[in-house]
Write a structure and sequence with these properties.
- This protein has helices at about 25-30, 85-95, 100-115, and strands spanning about 5, 15-20, 35-40, 50-60, 70-75, 100.
- It has about 120 residues and is an alpha+beta fold.
- It folds into 2 domains: about 1-30; about 30-115, no CATH class.
- The strands form 2 sheets. A 4-stranded antiparallel beta sheet has the order 5-4-3-6. It has a two-stranded antiparallel sheet with strand order 1-2.
- The longest helix is centred in the last third of the chain and has 14 residues, at about 100-115.
Length: about 120
């Protein structure tokens, strides 16, 4: 593999990376060890619910392992136009496909639990 000069997507500093596809410098990998991915799920016959999971992958584990799965579930009667859906989309845009710290991961968990997880549905 050949070294390539790249810009870290978190701190914006220029570093030399092995051409491995990594987009964070060594310092940022230590500071932001989790990568978040939102995955919506759906089933026929349950049209008025939005549900799925957020996978938190650790850079300390092999890529195929997920450190944590955080569930979300809320009523979405108006099929993607409800106020709750718009709030969720804003939350998702903030966090989806982001490298985060342990503190930020806890913030995501609290936000999902408080605003986007209805145990009674």
């Amino acid at each position: 593999m050949k070294d390539e000069e790249k810009i870290c997507k978190k701190c914006k500093k220029t570093y030399f990376f092995l051409s491995s596809g990594c987009s964070l410098c060594v310092d940022c990998v230590k500071k932001y060890p989790y990568f978040l991915t939102f995955i919506e799920e759906g089933f026929d016959g349950i049209p008025d619910r939005a549900f799925g999971r957020v996978e938190a992958r650790s850079n300390k584990e092999p890529a195929e392992y997920t450190k944590e799965e955080i569930r979300f579930l809320f009523k979405d009667n108006q099929r993607n136009t409800s106020k709750k859906r718009k709030e969720f989309q804003k939350f998702r845009e903030k966090w989806d496909f982001k490298n985060v710290s342990e503190t930020e991961l806890e913030e995501v968990k609290r936000g999902l639990e408080k605003s986007f997880y209805n145990k009674d549905l």
